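User: Some background: our group keeps a shared notebook of sequences we're curious about, and every so often someone picks one and asks for a predicted structure to add to the entry. Today it's my turn. The entry only has the sequence so far, pasted here. Could you supply the structure so I can complete it?
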Amino acid sequence: MVKGLEGKGIELLYPGGFQALSSVDLLLARARFEAVIGPNGAGKSSLLRCLSGLRKPDRGKIRVDGDSLSDLSWKARARKIALSLPDRDVPKGLRVRDLVLMARYPWLPLLGSPERKDHERVEASLERCGISALADRPYHALSTGERQRVLLARTLAQGTPYLLLDEPASNLDASHRLGVFSLLRTWVDETGGGVLVVTHDLNLASQFADRIHVLHLGKILASGTPGEVIAASVLSPVYGPELVYGRLCSGAVGEDRPWALPWRLPGAQ
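Assistant: Of course. Here's the predicted structure to add to the notebook entry:
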């Protein structure tokens, strides 16, 4: 049995016949950090929702560690896969610590209460994300960037082997964006779990991911290492010609990684 979260032939239709995903194949293996990049409207968030079980695809199969996702209860799925979305609806007045503690519900017995180990995991996740000082503050009293880090802590506290994150570093400054991706890279290396991140930041994906998938118009156009994907031959059909490319040594993995920057050259329209 392959240990991994696998989607085969995923197709997703929205009302009106719009096809959000078309014949998408993707395998997130254990001990891997993978990223999905692509322009707005490519289907990236829809893909995460399908892989997590939040949205049932119209066609295709999704399996986690050999089990069909559709055959698992919500609790069994939530013990395998944690999904972090930037638009999560949070009740007004809820404290940060209580919001993060809610991630432990899949592990509680029916009508059971959180135990010491659950509270310890919450505190460890808050500390790991650098937000222990925010624990007693209402979630809605935080800045947008602070909320992002709270949602990351909640995802880590769930204690699953697979993390799916939609733009986890959005609304953060440069230092904290690096911190989030470095934290996820460390989590993968320490736990042997798998991370799949949707991001618009090509360079963070290149620096930290083992593998990158390019999604465009609902289809995966390319998959490979950063060196194979962050290249003009792959990205120009998706992002256009106004990217410049180079290479830098990545402290995260100790090897040269490509970078790409949007840069309008003089005289370009």
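Suggested note for the entry: The chain has a mean pLDDT of 92. The radius of gyration is 19 Å.
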